Request: fold
Amino acid sequence: MNPKKNFKKVVLITGASRGIGAATAKLCAKAGWDIVVNYTQNQEAANSLCAELKDLGAATLCVQADVGDESQILKMFSQIDSHFGALHGLVNNAGIVDMTSHVVDMSWSRLERMMRINILGSIVCAREAIKRMSTDHKGSGGSIVNLSSVAARVGAPSQYVDYAASKGAIDSFTFGLAKELATQGIRVNAVRPGIIDTDIHASGGLPNRAKDLAPMVPMQRAGTAQEVGEAILWLLSDESSYTTASVLDVTGGR
Reply:
């Protein structure tokens, strides 16, 4: 490791080129963080975001890596070591949905991809972050924020039961890891978004899903990526210094 002179905290946000990840990155930049922007495919969007973050005063690193591939995760963390020499926060934001389906019609390949990216990727990113942040590993502590979903509570029947199951696993992982790391200077929490108006719904074949489901929400509207990002930023920050093993619903009351 070749640490560079750097006095600001560094956060890695996976899946940061769009939606909740991008909104969180902008909020973190305004709050004084330096930022590692991870993306899988959309290099143009990632580069545009990094340029915007630099204008907000943040040092940035754009890293292409599929979090469903351990070798790519390890390479990404090696790049972080070389560029920043430290890590203080992780936002496990990267995740996928698939086309709406009943469980009876779900293929093994669909299920394997869902769990590999949404669960294994988050766990392995956390594992590598722990090695750099834990006081037991000579780190200075930090915060991990996992992205769950209200689907973990409601189950998403006849649409995304596999996605809901993956996010239920994220909730369990958050609780267990938080207690495991409580004496190592690392807090672990999760944010559980509800119906949020982002383009992830289009990738599941329902581009108007947020608008269509808004009447089901007590607040009668979908949420925004910015509103979820504000919750993530709070959990990352020292303002939440006595908060760990918590899941924060950002659901409009749903």
DSSP finds nine helices and seven strands in the chain. The radius of gyration is 17 Å.
